[in-house]
Automatic annotation (TrEMBL), chain B:
Residues 1-27, 48-75 are annotated as: Disordered. It is found in: Cell envelope. Its main location: other. The keyword Signal applies. Residues 78-333 form the Periplasmic binding protein domain. The keyword Signal applies. One of its GO terms (cellular component) is cell envelope. This is ABC transporter substrate-binding protein. InterPro entries: Peripla_BP_I, SBP_2_dom, TAT_signal. Pfam families: Peripla_BP_4. SUPFAM superfamilies: Periplasmic binding protein-like I. Residues 7-16 have a biased composition (Pro residues). Keywords: Signal.
């Protein structure tokens, strides 16, 4: 995608966001435009946002990762089971990250070096990671008792009024943006997703690149799992429910091509923000679940149509 | 009998027994019961004389000959099929059933792996039917969708104890035992109503469970009906979560922003309450009272400690699974239920949604699920 066209795409997403903010300011003037609510929208974007950054890389590289929600669940459960909590904040973080990386490694090896297509391999991971999370947690909610972890989620820990979770999201997004746009790794990702055979002929280690992409996605899931632990004060096997669909939807809205070879981190981040702002608007206006779901679907279609219209004109 | 019920006067002519109305009535009731028991014992004595069978008298005293008790009886194989235990309450259901079955030497439990997939659960129940278990205890993932397989079991001569989520046809089960979702909402509403009845323009917020489940709508209906009795209270917001910690945290955080001031919150489920309470702490709010639902150990301990917004929880006891095993065993041994005069077990038993507060929490703590 050329730079100007990418700008237009992002601009239309910003337009959607502005429209949502106007609706919010109009319907709930006292609650919507407050720093509290802005913090809330950003905090609620942060966990799914980190996952979306990883998924965006995978999709741009020509793959798909359906297992992200399940990996988040497994990592959060594993990091909160009693034995791990004994090692405190560091132990839990390390555990969440290594579980994420481990699952990513399995995905990557199966897809890059094994005979499996991404859809099947990550579908299998989705099922087995959730199953393992259920097994380890025994269906119970693992409540966190480590204060240093819990403290990260409350207002005392805010840096210049910004919740640490939002800072982590921002850091992951900026790093992702730099890696995708400014490094060889990023260029190889786009090349492999655009045309794998041509990339191979051009001397890119396609298999290794694919493996690294799933590792990256797994790592993002590990980070997200730890963030979710901080946010909810617990690990549960139902964590990360439907993250795979939310992350893919945010990436697509953000202009990532599902067939690979094209996409931006900025677009994905904007996509996540649009989703969270919609949810926030609905809750502030006390809309019921059924209405919310219908409206959400309609807005997704509208957002994509607006982009398509801009692109062809 | 020392007193007549027709004269329950507190100013009793007898100065040595200053009884109130109630106590004199209960004294009468007790003595009448003694008379009946005496008669029953006499009858037992007579029947003991005329029959060759031995009769231990205790059965006869209860007014019926065949009541299930802890003593080993005829061997019963109970098939148990439930949904996937992916959260605290369902997990407690499985544990309660298994532990109760272990208690009986004459009971063998054949439990299937839980599944939320209707087709898979139908297959599991059919396997249990083919194994010819004596009685089935079924907690269907979806009562309506599993009605046919319940009918099939009953036609095959296997009585079904339907646990909690009810089948669409009464022909599909011999006995239903479950919780009272409407009553849960009703009692939560009454508790909050009584707490806020003297407050002008009181505001209440509801954090519901999964909205596409009938039970969620029943809980809300009961809650709304109870609040109708308190015209000073208005429900200002309701959001549905998904019975998970994550959804509880996220929806509660939104509710707290949407309603800067309210007086009470009813949360349908203690498991999603872990997240809801976290959101409340994160927002630094403590200006309202919170009532939970279902009755987890964690929440009961919080009620006991009385150092947070949570002041009560409305029970939806997982002990119903243990009771279902009792009923299944009684069915398998063709016995009635102790303490009731009936010869057969009842066709339906609805549990009471008690409100657990600081005053009675010790009584209920042992039933709290993790």
């Amino acid at each position: 995608m050329s730079a100007p066209r990418r700008g237009v795409r992002h601009l239309s997403l910003v337009g959607v966001l502005v429209a949502l903010v106007v609706v919010g300011a109009f319907t709930k003037p006292e609650q919507f435009l407050t720093s509290d609510n802005l913090q809330l929208i950003l905090t609620q974007s942060s966990v799914i946002g980190v996952v979306t950054v990883g998924v965006t890389f995978v999709i741009i590289g020509g793959g798909i990762d359906l297992s992200v929600g399940a990996i988040v669940a497994l990592a959060s459960v594993w990091a909160t089971t009693v034995a791990t909590q004994e090692f405190g904040l560091g132990g839990m973080l390390l555990c969440a990250l290594s579980v994420g990386l481990g699952c990513g490694l399995v995905n990557g090896v199966l897809i890059a070096y094994g005979p499996m297509v991404p859809f099947i391999a990550t579908l299998a991971m989705l099922a087995s990671a959730r199953g393992l999370a259920l097994l380890i947690s025994d269906g119970k909610t693992q409540v966190v008792t480590v204060n240093s972890v819990l403290d990260l989620g409350v207002s005392d820990s805010y840096v210049l009024g910004i919740p640490p979770l939002v800072l982590v999201f921002a850091a992951v997004a900026v790093l992702g943006w730099l890696v995708l746009g400014r490094t060889t790794f990023g260029r190889r990702t786009v090349a492999v997703g655009g045309n794998a055979e041509a990339s191979r002929l051009a001397g890119i280690a396609v298999r290794r690149q694919r493996l690294l992409l799933y590792l990256l996605s797994g790592l993002c899931c590990g980070i997200a799992a730890f963030m979710l632990i901080v946010l909810t004060g617990s690990g549960q096997n139902t964590n990360g429910n439907l993250y795979e669909l939310d992350a893919i939807a945010a990436a697509i809205i953000g202009g990532t091509l599902l067939s690979g070879g094209r996409g931006t981190i900025t677009g994905s981040v904007l996509g996540v923000l649009v989703f969270t702002t919609i949810t926030n608007l609905f809750a502030l206006n006390n809309l019921q679940t059924d209405v919310q779901q219908i409206a959400k679907g309609a807005i997704i279609v509208a957002a994509v149509l607006v982009q398509k219209g801009r692109k062809t004109s | 009998m020392t007193e007549s019920p027709e004269n329950p006067n507190p100013q009793n002519p007898n100065p040595n027994s200053p009884r109130t109305d109630a106590s004199s009535l209960s004294a009468f009731g007790a003595s009448r019961r003694n008379v009946l028991f005496g008669a029953a014992a006499g009858a037992a004595f007579l029947s003991g004389c005329t029959s060759n069978e031995s009769n231990d008298g205790k059965d006869a005293e209860a007014g019926q000959a065949n009541v299930a008790d802890d003593k080993p009886g005829k061997r019963v194989t109970i098939g148990f099929a439930g949904p996937q235990a992916d959260h605290g309450w369902l997990n407690a259901i499985n544990e309660q059933a298994k532990e109760r079955a272990k208690k009986y030497k004459d009971v063998t439990l054949e439990a299937t792996e839980g599944s939320n997939d209707n087709a898979q659960q139908v297959g599991q129940i059919e396997t249990l039917i083919n194994k010819k278990v004596d009685v089935l205890v079924i907690l269907p993932a979806d009562g309506k969708a599993l009605t046919q397989v319940g009918l099939k079991a009953m036609r095959a001569g296997i009585p079904v104890v339907n646990l909690d989520r009810v089948f669409a046809s009464q022909q599909a089960y011999r006995c239903w035992i479950g919780g009272d979702n409407y009553g849960m909402g009703l009692n939560a509403g009454r508790y909050i109503g009584e707490k806020l009845k003297d407050k002008k323009n009181a505001k209440v917020v509801e954090l519901a469970g999964i909205d596409n489940l009938e039970l969620t709508r029943e809980r809300t209906e009961g809650f709304d009906d109870a609040l109708k009795n308190y015209p000073n209270i208005k429900k200002v917001a309701r959001q549905a979560a998904e019975f998970t910690v994550e959804s509880g945290q996220s929806k509660m955080a939104q509710l707290l922003r949407a309603e800067p001031k309210f007086d009470a919150l009813w949360n349908h489920d203690d498991d999603q309450g872990v997240g809801a309470e976290r959101a409340i702490k994160q927002a630094g709010r403590d200006d309202f009272l919170m009532v939970g639902g279902a009755g987890s150990k964690r929440v009961m301990e919080a009620i006991k400690a009385d150092n947070s917004v949570i002041k009560a929880t409305v029970l939806y006891p997982p002990t119903m699974a243990a009771s279902a095993i009792d009923l299944a065993r009684a069915l398998g041994q063709s016995k009635g239920v102790g303490g009731l005069a009936e010869f057969e077990i009842p066709a339906s038993i609805t549990l009471y949604s008690a409100v657990v507060t600081r005053l009675n929490v010790d009584e209920y703590l042992p039933t709290g699920f993790k």
